[in-house]
Amino acid sequence: MLEYRHNLLTDQWVIIAAKRDDRPQSFTAPDNSTEIKIDPACPFCLGNEHLTATPVYLFEKDSQWLVRVIPNKFPFLNRTRQNYQQTDNTSYLAEPADGIHEVLIESNKHSDHLAIIDYSHALEIIKALQSRCRDMLTTMGIGHVCIFKNHGRDAGASLVHPHFQIAAASLISPVITARLLHCQQFIKDKGISTYQAVIQEEINADKRIITQDKDFIIFCPYASQYPYEVCILPMTEIADFSLLTKELTEKLTANIQTILKKLYRGLNNPPYNIIIDTVPNCHNPAITQGFRFMVRICPRITPVGGYETATSTYVNTTSPEAATDFFQSI
To 5 degrees, how large is the angle CA 227–CA 230–CA 233? Predict the structure, then answer.
């Protein structure tokens, strides 16, 4: 099957080019025999705390830290606006990369994995992300908080030790702005948000839903950018990930772990990105009307090639319908 598909949430197109040889059976079970608990050279391991900055968030259990959040040693955002001077007076535009960039270290063990750690441990990771997100959104000058995880070299990770990154930028990305404006126009035209429309379409089609309850729908998006991509959306209009209730935070954590366990077992612990998309801090409720936070889990088992780079149109070689069958079979 070769088919262009439109992503209603992002207003972007993808190509679904399913191949019969792209089957989960070609992956083997993960081998944990070589995993190590402590790497003496790793700055995130227990005992190497002196190699990192003072934590801004700390969760401890049994007299040891379990989750730490620290300033990123190699940030792509920092609070430099006051000292910024543009060196050129040309047609090119430049702004200081003003913001906050932190690292959440998920465990004091080098080879822990969010898919297989205890649920109570995973819950503390999600709660820590929420706490830092809340603090950043109330910081002067912050427009948007991006929470993401790069697992594996092919997904952009530079360190093996499990960690999330939290990037709070003064500039709201044009991609996010375009998505908000697209949603507002859709509400004007159709009377419902793009998020509600996607949920209705998925329920009606009943081809791509992995699981659903009164609080969350978990599905492989109709226009998935990546093979085996999964989206977790709240069933009700909840915009801010950091303000979830205790019950919803617990359910979200369980849902994330469920999908990661399926990837871990079924695709041999593939590289992946997790993106938690939460409402920007634009101080204009009209612009964010209808917005819902969402979690995207994007395995990176095929490389991004020249066509994607040239056109920004992704080619996905595994249909979301086949991916849903895979998740339901694990």
Answer: 155
User: How many C-beta atoms surround the C-beta of residue 145 within 10 A?
Assistant: 28
Tracing tokens 């002067």 back to the chain, one arrives at: 140
Instruction: Give domain limits for the chain.
Output: 2-78+96-329
Q: How far apart are the C-alpha atoms of 45 and 43, rounded to whole Å?
A: 6
Handedness of CA 18, 24, 28, 32 (dihedral sign): positive
From CA 56, how far away is CA 11, in angstroms rounded?
37
Q: What is the pLDDT of residues 74-119, one digit of tens each?
A: 999 998 766 666 666 678 888 889 999 999 999 999 999 999 999 9
Q: What is the pLDDT of residues 53-75, one digit of tens each?
A: 999 999 999 999 999 999 999 99
> CA-CA distance, 146 to 277, in Å (whole number)?
7
The pLDDT tens digits of the residues spanning 159-177 come to: 999 999 999 999 999 999 9
DSSP for 80-137 reads: -GGG------SS------BEEEEEEE--SSTT--TTTS-HHHHHHHHHHHHHHHHHHH
In angstroms, what CA-CA distances link 262 with 61, 117, 123, 230, 325? 28, 14, 18, 11, 12
DSSP 205-239: H-SSEEEE-SSEEEE--TT-SSTT-EEEEESS---
Structure tokens at 194: 């793009």
Domain spanning 2-78+96-329: which CATH class is it, in words?
alpha beta
Give yes or no for residue 25 having a pLDDT over 60.
Answer: no
Model pTM? 0.93
